[in-house]
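Researcher: I need the complex structure. Ligand is heme C. Inputs:
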Amino acid sequence: MSYGVCYMHDLLNHITKFIKIILLSVLSVFFVSSSNAELTVEEIIKSRQALFSKNYRTAKKVQSLASNLDFEDAILLMNEMSENYKVLIDLFPENSQEGFDTEALLTIWDEKDDFNALMQKASDDMINLASVIEDADDIRGTLTKFMWSNCKACHSRYREEH
Ligand code: HEC
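Model: Output:
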């Protein structure tokens, strides 16, 4: 083999590698951007509504478990609700303000920091609730203070009358 052929061969190898790298980069950019756009607006609105409904069912279970002094199970559900609120914070992107029967008020996006802070408070309060419920004298009052009052505080300001 002459030196010239060998050189051409190397060059071709390099070019092929280069093309492979470019193709891979293009593909990965494509995959990353398509995973960000994974959820449609409808899916975002439906999933936040489903999660609120789930929290409502869970809150009622928390109430009945705690009232029956079954604190262990009640505390597990309190932690679950706390986590759900954190997921909810990310389910109000700019493009999900309207449509698909949302009851979310536009003020949410005017006051996004306040709204997020209320959601975070609701989440933190479930952890606080878990730490005080066993020693609480007034179980009903404690549930109202750390759980139900947060629903009302947020709905009265950020959710349509229904
Ligand atoms: C920080 C704000 C916030 C907190 C805290 C909050 N919610 Fe909501 N909730 C909303 C908003 C906003 C909607 C409207 C969502 C939509 O329709 O897109 C909603 C909707 C709902 C719905 C209707 C879901 C559906 O199927 O349309 C229920 C039920 C609900 N919330 C229950 C609760 C309960 C119970 C609590 C407390 C344990 C609570 N929420 C706490 C803001 C909040």
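Model: Summary of the prediction. The pocket of heme C is lined by residues 45, 48-49, 52-53, 55-56, 59, 102-104, 115, 118-119, 122, 147, 150-151, 154-155, 158-159 (CB under 6 Å).
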